Amino acid sequence: MVDILLRRRFGLLGRNISYSFSKGYFTEKFNNEVFAGNSYENFDISEINYFTELIKNNPDLKGLNVTIPYKEQVIPFLDKLSKKAALIGAVNTIKFTKSGKLKGYNTDYYGFKKSLKPLLEPHHKKALILGTGGASKGVAFALDELDIPYTFVSREAKENIIDYDLINATTFDNFQIIINCTPVGTSPNIEACPNLPYEFFTEKHIAYDLIYNPAETTFLRKAKEMGAVIKNGHDMLIFQAEKAWKIWNK
């Protein structure tokens, strides 16, 4: 017999999210009779200002995941943040509290950290983070916890951020972990990849792509051809999703 308390609605907030990992993952999870009665759906909105209306029209929602491009934009609409989400400055999980408040959490950092840790060797000392959006903030927080210094890379150089044109052989000597936090290379534009001198990857490097569709992006393929250890974002997504599930149920 299904516990009436388990009959709850969850979903994913984002834009152009028909490809979503989360919907498939949680729908499959909820097909297990232990979780029967739960449902998960996509809430695809064209701009963040529609979030208030979404909440108003769906009063029975109990939790949301948040994806591109709203991990930072959603914060002003929330009542409070967890300590780590506040430090990170990005939210990918929202809990609807018993008092009706919306509380933001970040489980991206947890998923990334847990999936990266088994790959680390003593020579993996510094990281390059490609991109400066919400996902990159969770990655940076995880690297801080792992005591791995990092530098951000963007199309335009700013304070504490270098641009792609500055990356050369010396950069690859100094940074042994390269993490793609941009959407470049995701389906359907699978031939695209970040603008890097891929010939400088070696077996001493880790190439990590937060993208999971396709499973092997052009970024990962080119790095692998030079001997690098590669990792896509699939395990990170599973770990962060299960962490979100625990948050919704605590």
TrEMBL record:
Domain named Shikimate dehydrogenase substrate binding N-terminal: residues: 12-94
Alphabetic keyword roster: Amino-acid biosynthesis, Aromatic amino acid biosynthesis, Oxidoreductase
Lineage: superkingdom: Bacteria
Pfam families: Shikimate_dh_N
Pathway in which the depicted protein is active: Metabolic intermediate biosynthesis; chorismate biosynthesis; chorismate from D-erythrose 4-phosphate and phosphoenolpyruvate: step 4/7
Name of this chain's protein: Shikimate dehydrogenase
Species whose genome carries this gene: Flavobacterium humidisoli
